[in-house]
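Long-time lurker, finally posting.

We've been working with Torso-like protein isoform X1 (Nicrophorus vespilloides) and I want a structural starting point before designing mutants. I don't trust myself to interpret raw outputs, so I'm hoping someone here can both generate the structure tokens and explain anything notable. Sequence follows.
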Amino acid sequence: MNFLQYPKIFETMISYRINRSRDAFRKRRCKVAVAARMCSRALLLVLLTAFVSAADGDKLQVGQSMDIMSRYGYLGITMRVVARNESDTSWIFREPTYDVFANLDPLTVHPRRSAKSGSFNGEFHMEFCDNLRQLKQAYFRDFAFEGLDKPWQAFTTGWSSPETIARHMGINSSFVHGDYCYVLVRLSRFWDNVKLSRLPNNVNLLENMAEEIEKIFVGDVASVLMFTRRVGTHYINSFVTGNSLYQVFVYHKPIYLRIRERLKTRGIKNLSPVELSNFFSPWYAEHIGQIQVASGNKTVKHWATNRLRVHYYIFSYTSLMKIHGDTKLLSDLNGLLQNEALLQLDLRSLTPVFKDPVKREWFNEILDNYLNLLEENS
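Top reply, 14 upvotes:
Generated this for you. Predicted structure of Torso-like protein isoform X1:
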């Protein structure tokens, strides 16, 4: 639910949330009860600025801030994280961002992943999911947003129809409902890996950021909402870009549990190639999804469809498992998967920008209330 479309409902909920914690702010200049009465004005101001960008955000950089509330549930619109049906693959991240900190270069780290010359620079990953919710959670496992217990919902809440879920996951929509279990197999190729070291307490802010902080007043909900719209709610702490292939295998529960236990007790390295292939073949799987490319690159998908096809008795299907342990296929894919998608993202609350502890606590109070409401109503 987008709360801004239902101001009366939202005002009631946020008033309840704020009133629950008003004792903590009773001795301050403005009581929280006053803040609750200002929600209508705050919502109006937010609506007026909903489409105003604080800065051009077509480049992904650590330390920049962004607002995760305005597009909660639909962040995939501005971040290339899952296969999408569009021809333009020239962008990875186009969420509006705001410059916050001064002189971050000494605090910026570029970790290097060790890889032998000519080897595949990435990882092969398999995750067992008891249900559809776990499947969505597994796909966004490497996305962490401070203050959200279920960060994957910031992307998937907008997947309102079975057809949308099926399209993104590469499976038939008939397998979205029902007592099915899933195995997500993913092969990721890493390119850029950037993160911030721990921010010091005396980290310097840009002058315009300090001016924005001055516009927040303790007890005034509207001032916090306007701040989050102009500046953001979180800053980018780290990210990894690259590209990945992924595929979903659908099972009936008894077979799924049998395979999971077998892999758990033996480990994938101790299974014979024949046994491993059987587990991910039509003999065991109720449905084998299409191999998807996170960036939507059609050339890569065409390569996967042709080179990863398996002929198994009377069956013919594509399987990402075919590439497991095949150095030739991995080498070919290493050159095909370019820097076209966002694979990992860690966002931290803008708490460090507030030097005044009272103002910092007020900002956190409002931010936590809104984020909790978004999650509870997703």
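Before you design anything, note these points.
Residues 1-12, 18-57, 114-118 have pLDDT under 50 and may be disordered.
The radius of gyration is 23 Å.
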